[in-house]
Amino acid sequence: MRKGLTIAVSGKGGVGKTNFSALLVRSLARRGSVLALDADPDSNLPQALGINIQGTIGDIREDILNAPARSEVAQHKAEHLKMALHELVEETPDFDLAVMGRPEGPGCYCAVNYVLRQVIDSRAESYDFTVIDCEPGLEHLSRRTTRDVDILVVVTDPTKNGILTAKRVQDLARELFVDFGQVQVVANKITPQTRPLVEKMAQEEGLEVVGYIPYDPLVAEYDALGKPVWGLPPQSPFSQGVEKIAETILAPART
Hints:
The protein is of the alpha/beta class. About 45% of the residues lie in helices and about 20% in strands. The N and C termini lie close together (about 5 Å).
């Protein structure tokens, strides 16, 4: 396995992409060093991982944009970002976590975002894996904020809307020429009754589903109680489903 493999997780809201991202981090942490990036403005990944954060990268960006033009911060954006990002990364024995936080607001963020991507990319190179929990839908693709990703995992649930969103994400990635090595579709919350329906819908839309995660009532219980899914038992259906998919999506990258 080469170093610096980047996996982005996308899908429409409510399909379970953040829970999937959290347990993908858990699975990959047994294989090497992991940087988890929460790129969803709702910032639910820390809760799913059982981590309390002190600040977000969005806060840093606002500080830079609001800094006086002649200030040290404004004149040395890259250096300030590197130092601030280092302080904001939550380090644990199993993985490191950085949270993007607030979305872009009014005004020009282009220069700051360009520098920010460079800083994140340079830091990610020191990890075996980077897992990005993207915001729901297609915004991260239409703004081209997800770039140079080796594997894009699109999570769907057993609904027509979920399948159609997965199809649109795949098509938009190709249309925008986003640099993805692979696009993998994963079906979540699957029962014996819904699996044939999902298979049929995916076939009709020209999607190949690489893995099916069973519906797990324990996940719903954890969510209701505010418990991190990181603590799910390894033998739970959701845990086992994510583990199998991790093996599947990583297999082609083992070179």
